[in-house]
Write a structure and sequence with these properties.
This protein is of the alpha+beta class and 149 residues long. Helices cover 34% and strands 31% of the residues. It is built from 4 helices and 4 strands. The radius of gyration is 26 Å and the shape is elongated.
Length: 149
């Protein structure tokens, strides 16, 4: 799933808008983590436990948003944003939202990106299948026009 924060995807044509999608989680704060963070904030520095929790929460809501987009038949989300808000003294809401779309690559660079992201395979040369009788050695030795031409 291609997820971008822009309103369009350069080199891609948006063929269908599937609607707004979001992923949401509400987290309660761990009292011990809060105390540790409070002590750490007195001396300065990164609050690694809090950072890790935020990264995990953002990944979780992104996954939920992507699942919703897939369920609507989309292959991309445009205008993706994060939103957080405090709920009471101990809860935090984290939301990822955007617009689910069906996008098609229209430039060579976009097609390369699509293949790299697994949206499709590079075009392969299709060869017509010979009928089973044409694969027999006695038939193959004779000169015959292809029955598929």
């Amino acid at each position: 799933m291609l997820v971008v924060t822009s309103n369009d995807i350069p080199g891609w044509e948006i063929r269908q808008v599937c609607g707004e999608v979001f992923g949401l989680t509400v987290r309660s704060r761990n009292a011990f983590s809060q105390m540790g963070a409070g002590f750490k904030s007195l001396v300065g520095g990164e609050l690694k436990g809090m950072t890790s929790n935020l990264v995990n929460s953002r990944n979780e809501v992104m996954g939920r948003m992507i699942d919703e987009a897939r369920n609507r038949g989309a292959n991309a989300v445009i205008a993706m944003r994060f939103d957080t808000s405090e709920m009471g003294d101990t809860w935090t809401e984290i939301c990822a939202y955007g617009t689910a779309v069906v996008a098609v690559p229209v430039t060579d660079a976009a097609r390369e990106t699509a293949v790299r992201l697994g949206y499709g395979q590079a075009p392969q040369q299709q060869t017509p299948q010979q009928p089973e009788y044409a694969q027999q050695p006695e038939y193959a030795q004779q000169q015959h026009p292809s029955p598929l031409s």
